[in-house]
Specification:
Radius of gyration: 17 Å
Number of domains: 1
CATH architecture: 3-Layer(aba) Sandwich
Strand content: 25-35%
Shape: globular
Number of strands: 10
Number of helices: 9
CATH topology: Rossmann fold
Bound molecules: adenosine-5'-diphosphate, magnesium ion
CATH class: Alpha Beta
Largest sheet: 6 strands, mixed
Helix content: 25-40%
CATH superfamily: P-loop containing nucleotide triphosphate hydrolases
Distance between the termini: 33 Å
Length: about 230
């Protein structure tokens, strides 16, 4: 289980995350929604440790990670798919995967990634930068999955991606969920996508949770109210 307790976080003097409590139980997929600029990416960076919380706690499986480095958190099984993919364009697809493997502290590639994304196997020797945007997103997800994380953070994986690849990504998330080894936080703006994959939803506004609900009791109107500009 991942627990965020009264998290405050931001950049220098500017507090972006004001006071967030959030819980992800084992095997759950939790979606974080909210308008642009409300702090979703900042929250994920605080979980992965690129940013350090100014206050509060990040606890994973009863271990306090709050003061730990990103490398330590990754080795605890927390994988990260950053917004905008951030693959290494001059490295091959395979070399990109090896970086994920090392970050997660694993020795052997989880071969499931080739089943999830056959294109990754087919394009193993191509440079990451030569893939389409959607394929790069698949690579970014595969890079996080090669070390078999117990927890996966995905930051807007469908942003700007063509519909057929969005569908593939959705299928993979559902498959991972079925396999039951990995919990997830997914930042996502598309409510239909969220309903297809998530168990629980949090909506953030101005750095705080303004709405939360189990997916089967979700009030669409409440969500749209916070998402509309
Ligand atoms: N590196 C940074 N330095 C200073 N401010 C930042 C930085 N990154 C993001 N911000 C600010 O933090 C706020 C939240 O950004 P972000 O977490 O990226 O929002 P979201 O992911 O919800 O769109 C925004 O006002 C943004 O301008
Ligand atoms: Mg963001």
């Amino acid at each position: 289980m991942l627990e965020l307790e009264s998290i405050k976080s931001g950049y220098g003097e500017s507090m972006v995350i004001r006071d967030i409590d959030l819980k992800v139980k084992d095997k759950q997929v939790v979606c974080v929604m909210g308008r642009n600029g409300v702090g979703k990416t900042t929250l994920l960076k605080t979980i992965i440790g690129i940013l350090h919380a100014n206050k509060g706690k990040v606890v994973y499986n009863d271990k306090d990670l709050t003061k730990r480095r990103p490398s330590y958190r990754a080795r605890q099984g927390i994988g990260y798919v950053p917004q905008g993919r951030e693959i290494f364009p001059k490295l091959t697809v395979y070399e990109n995967l090896l970086i994920g493997l090392e970050a997660g502290g694993s020795k052997q590639i989880n071969e499931d990634v080739y089943t999830y994304f056959p294109i990754i196997k087919e394009f193993k020797k191509r440079n990451g930068g030569d893939l389409s945007g959607g394929q790069q997103q698949q690579l970014a997800i595969a890079r996080a999955l090669v070390s078999n994380p117990s927890f996966l953070l995905l930051d807007e994986p469908t942003e700007g991606i063509q519909p057929n690849i969005v569908q593939e990504i959705q299928d993979v998330i559902i498959d991972i969920k079925k396999n039951g080894q990995t919990s997830m936080i997914l930042v996502e703006q598309d409510l239909e996508f969220v309903k297809n994959v998530a168990d629980y939803v949090y909506v953030i506004d101005h750095g705080s949770i303004v709405y939360e609900s189990a997916v089967d009791q979700l009030n669409d109107k409440a969500v749209y109210r916070y998402l509309s500009v």
